[in-house]
Specification:
six-stranded antiparallel β-sheet, 2 helices, 12 strands, alpha+beta, 182 residues
Length: 182
């Protein structure tokens, strides 16, 4: 009889210990996921993003993150495209979300090449061509600068962000460059 009680106690102890171990492992996995993602754990944008812009004549130019230079050139009045051309790639991204502080994004794609206003935010596939325009249709004010924020997503979680600044000079030519400090 005493052996049976001892055996039952050991079995009960093993059961409780097993349940507690499963709970502890579940909590550990949950907290690991929480601390291993988030804004402070974003991958360096310089290693993730690849941005190609086009000059007014249609010449593609790869925007280098380590070069202090302005890229592309776009003028509303004499460009071959309806906006500042951007081809955004992000390594291992499922989608890229873009937002503009001013101006708006437009699509201009085959087969009809009709200009479609999108707004200040858009989600695109990596490698998709999108256009930024200072013309919003909302006001006639001249936009001289816009900050584009690019967020790379994988499995519905952001894993890298970058900022690209588009500015116009006094003659109305827009150029862009990577923002520093990110």
């Amino acid at each position: 009889m005493n052996r049976t009680r001892t055996g039952m106690k050991k079995a009960r102890f093993r059961l409780v210990a097993g349940v507690l171990l499963i709970i502890a492992l579940g909590l550990l996995a949950f907290f690991y996921r929480e601390i291993s993602s988030g804004p402070e754990k974003l991958q360096a944008w310089q290693k993730v993003f690849n941005l190609t812009v086009h000059a007014a004549d249609g010449t593609p130019e790869l925007a280098q993150p380590d070069r202090e230079a302005s890229y592309g050139s776009y003028r509303v009045t004499d460009s071959k495209a309806p906006g500042y051309t951007l081809i955004v790639n992000a390594e291992d991204a499922d989608e890229i979300r873009l937002s503009a502080s001013t101006g708006s994004f437009i699509r201009w794609n085959a087969p009809d090449y009709k200009v479609n206003q999108v707004g200040k935010e858009i989600t695109i596939a990596p490698g998709e061509t999108i256009y930024w325009t200072p013309l919003t249709g909302e006001s006639s004010e001249t936009i001289t600068e816009s900050e584009l924020t690019m967020s790379a997503y994988r499995h519905n979680s952001v894993f890298s962000e970058a900022r690209f600044i588009i500015r116009s000079d006094e003659s109305g030519v827009y150029t862009g460059k990577w923002a520093e400090g990110d």
